[in-house]
Structures
1.
Amino acid sequence: MRIAIIGGSGKMGQWSAEFLLKNRHDVLLVGRSKEKLKEVQQILKVEIATDPAAVMNTDVVMFSAPMDHFEEAVRQYQSHIYPHQSVMEITSVKVIPVDVMHRCLNTKNVLSVHPMFGLGAKDIKKHNFISTPTTPIEDKLADKV
């Protein structure tokens, strides 16, 4: 599975990328700062991009953008996300991101998740995520995660 992480140079984006790589997923980190992305690329040996169109050829798009830039990020990428893609977000709050994704994206396959552990966790064994599906389609996606 090919997964794009928007905001991939941040701490949660990097943690997610490392976890996904260990689980044999193809990961693309996308962000605004090529310099920050290159630093992460040297550590994780992962593909990077600054062009929002790079997410078009992925199965899942994950937003790991700061809350104060979340809607701006979704709007920047919305024309590059298609109905067949699943979209997830891992911000610290849920109501606003869910509303933004429902209003702005051309897919109903969205899910808001929150890890119930710190970034020091080496993996997700014995750790939980809270998912907040709000539609039957999102319930199905939450069952897969």
2.
Amino acid sequence: MANTTKLITGKDGELLVTTKAGVNIPLAEVDAFTAKVTINNTDYQPLGKSIVYAVNTGYSVTLTLTEAVVRDDVMIMEFIEELQNGFMPSFEFQGKLRRRKADGSVEFERVVFRDCVPDGSIDLMNISPGEVIKRSWSFRVNESPEMLDSFPG
């Protein structure tokens, strides 16, 4: 039988961004984020075979997030300043999950996403009357994700 006390929910997750100074700042205003790997394959069917094989040609990693607009000093200010200077900013993120162990201590899973460059459409302002103002971001991760901590089996 599954031990449901080990199940993890959204309240156990956190996203951090690393500033230029190397400080990890929890993004408490982020209510949702997703990191995905897209595998790229090409088909190969040798003569005399009915099966078509998948041959891996690479992969890409994307990270998307939605933040409630609370402060502009962490990401959007840097983004706009870099654009004004003719550059595209790069960010580093850490996704973090926590789980309480039977002895009361806490264990973590952490994945680092480095060299994240903005990709696609970025909300500069997205305003509707009566709604919480949110900003959507999409990034292409230009380094392989790194697992710093993982949950034991």
